[in-house]
Amino acid sequence: MNSIISQGRTIEQAIENALEELGVTQDQVTIKVISEGGLFKKAKVEVTIDKDNTISEKVEEEVKEEKKPETKKKEIKVLVDDESSEERVKPMNKKGQKEFVSANVKEEKADKEVKQERNSVNDKAAQKIIETFLNEFLKFSKGENISIKMTFDDKAIYVSIDGNKLGGLIGNGGENLNNLESYLNVYASKHEIRKRIRVDVGNYKQERVNKLERMAEKAYQMAIKSGSYKFEAMPARDRRIIHTTLQNKEDVTTYSKGTEPKRFVIVEKKSN
Known about the structure:
single chain, alpha+beta, GMP Synthetase, Chain A, domain 3, Ribosomal Protein S8, Chain: A, domain 1, 3 domains
C-alpha cells in the first residue's frame, strides 16, 4: 500500500490517522488535502509514500484504498522536420487540418514541478505570511513575552512559539496546538505555501515524544512478562510514536484497536 485516503475531524487528525496506518513519518510522504472539513463535514486527505521510502510492517491493520478510475492516455507521435524548428507538426486531424504544438514539450513530471514552482511562494514570503497570521492569532491568547522562530527545509516549515503562560495554546493533550497547526496549514495553502507547516509551543511536542517513548519501553517490558499490554485511548499522533518506538523489537508486535476518539494501542508478545 503506497497511498491511502484518510478522514478526521481536522486536517491534522486525518494526516495523523494516515501516517499511523501506513507506518511512516511525515517527512516520508506527500500530502494532498482533498477536503478541509467543516462543522458537519470531516477533513479528507490523500497521503502517498515517496518512492524512496518503504512501509513499516508493524501496523497490521488493513486499509481499503480509495482508488480512482484509470484513464487511458492517447499516445501522439510528434514529427519534427529539423532540430531548429519552433513548432512540431502532429498528424492531420479528422478534418484534414494540421495541428501544431510547441517544440518545447516537457515530460509530465517536469511540467508539474514547473507549475508548482510557479504557484508557490518562496521561504521569505512564506515567513511573512505565517508571522502575520500568528501575530493576529496570538493577540487573543494569554501568553506573555511571546517569540516566534522559524526554520525551513525542502519539505516543511518548522514554527517554534516560546514565552510564558502558553498552556492555553497547547490545550489538553495538545488538542489546541494540533488545531492551531491545522488552521495554519489551511491558511498557508490558500496563500500559495506548498510546504507542510509544523508548529510547536514551548517544546511541548518534543517533550511529549520523549514521554511516549519512555511509556513504550515500559509497555514493552510488561508485554514480555505478561504477554500483552494495553494503552489508554490516545490520539493518532501519539499512537504512531508508540508504533515507531517499538517497530524494531522482534519479540513483540503493536497494533491499534477501537474507533476514534477511543482508539488505543496494544503491545503483544509474539509466540515462539
